[in-house]
Amino acid sequence: xxxxxxxxxxxxxxxxxxxxxxxxxxxxxxxxxxxxxxxxxxxxxxxxxxxxxxxxxxxxxxxxxxxxxxxxxxxxxxxxxxxxxxxxxxxxxxxxxxxxxxxxxxxxxxxxxxxxxxxxxxxxxxxxxxxxxxxxxxxxxxxxxxxxxxxxxxxxxxxxxxxxxxxxxxxxxxxxxxxxxxxxxxxxxxxxxxxxxxxxxxxxxxxxxxxxxxxxxxxxxxxxxxxxxxxxxxxxxx
Length: 238
Description:
Strand 1 (37-46) and strand 2 (55-65) form a beta hairpin. The protein is α+β, with helices and mostly antiparallel strands. The chain is 26% helix and 29% strand. The strands form seven sheets. A four-stranded antiparallel beta sheet has the order 5-6-14-13, with no helix packed on it. Strands 9-10-11 form a three-stranded antiparallel beta sheet, with no helix packed on it. The longest helix is centred in the C-terminal third of the chain and has 36 residues, at 201-236.
């Protein structure tokens, strides 16, 4: 395969990765707390000598998370929480503590606030948040203070990754922060609200069409190049 073929094939692989990213975003348009994902392309250029043009290849290997906020949706549910401004909830999981903006929690039989997967929500001190099952009313203040029947019991923690560019997706709405986390000062949360996905449907569909057209153009180029090589071989074989 000639350099043009390698370059086009490399580009096609990157476009496939970008299409997978777009498909994931579209599939999670209605997922609470979901963060849109993109692909960053890098370029590799190599000097082939003084009498030959340089070789340039692109690769889409880096996934980028869009951390802009989503819209707030009122639910009125006692344990639904949304973060206003910066910060993440910290969740205890078997893979280590992870961050999320998805604030849909429930109270298990022991009274611990947990995610839909059963993972505990952590407070400002890194301990699971407890709400007594026998409590008649639970109130959560904007600073995260949880009160049962008027008595303060805990403060739900808000955290920020030390390296925002170093977080990796650990699920549809969960993120791992390899560089560690830091508590957010003066964070604000709203009880009875959930934060929607930050995916813009129109933008993602437009992006999907662009990527599909780019892939089809690349496929056509490879097919024409392949036919050209076959034609040369047929001519030389006569």
